[in-house]
Amino acid sequence: MFELFFRFQPTAGHGDHYNLLTTKFPDARFSLWCNGNTDVLEIEAAGLGSLEELQNEITTSTKAHLDGKIISKTYLQDKFQLVARTCCCGSDHKGTPISPIIQRHNFMRIPPLVLAGGWEYHRLVGYDDNDLKGLLRGLDKIGATEVLHKKSVSEGMTDDAFLLSLSSLFGQLTEKQMKAMLSAIEGGYYEIPKRTTADDLALKHGQPRSTLEEHIRKAESKIVLAMAPYMMMYARVPEHPLLNKTKAAGATVGARMMKQVAMQLAAKSRNA
Description:
By secondary structure, the chain is α+β, with helices and mostly antiparallel strands.
């Protein structure tokens, strides 16, 4: 079992009306929950004027495209929540082919679906690398796919796949890295202005400054990388941090991921 984060940009004719709205309102971030019958849509945008314009657009497009009905609307600061008695992601709606592809390859969605700037940010749970290969192949036919993160879900710890667990954030830190990081936090190393320095911390722990800083840097790197997929989904206009590497490689991350999966499967077959 594994958890998969990816972002998807549909080609013309393959995006649903929510995705099209993100291109019309590029500064807005949409979060969508759906139970197959009712959509709960939260929108974050700059200012009440933008939210009112979005509300009018969504009300019109929901009635026109999905024969739906708006049940409730709620404003809270720069966020707007809309509940609609309709289902945008259902396979019965033309122009939204991504749902059948996800279902066909045995993946389970973890809400919310985040949309921003024409991109859809998906979080799935999968069970077999063969399914992953098929998923990416299917998605590449209808748009651009970039895998942001893939990690195994430990047996007996399935609940961690649905929540941001402490083990996923801190489980890779060594005892020395954890101790150095906690000492830095407690000492005020990350405050502005700092209440302590790396020299002070090193003296306190009786070790060279270079050693202490190495422990802290490694801990910071592991924590930030573990948080990265969640930050990408939360950001108002998420950006893909590996975009330059993707261009330099001459292929989408999805295509390269498929190649890696194929190599792994071939290696398993040889060792069987």
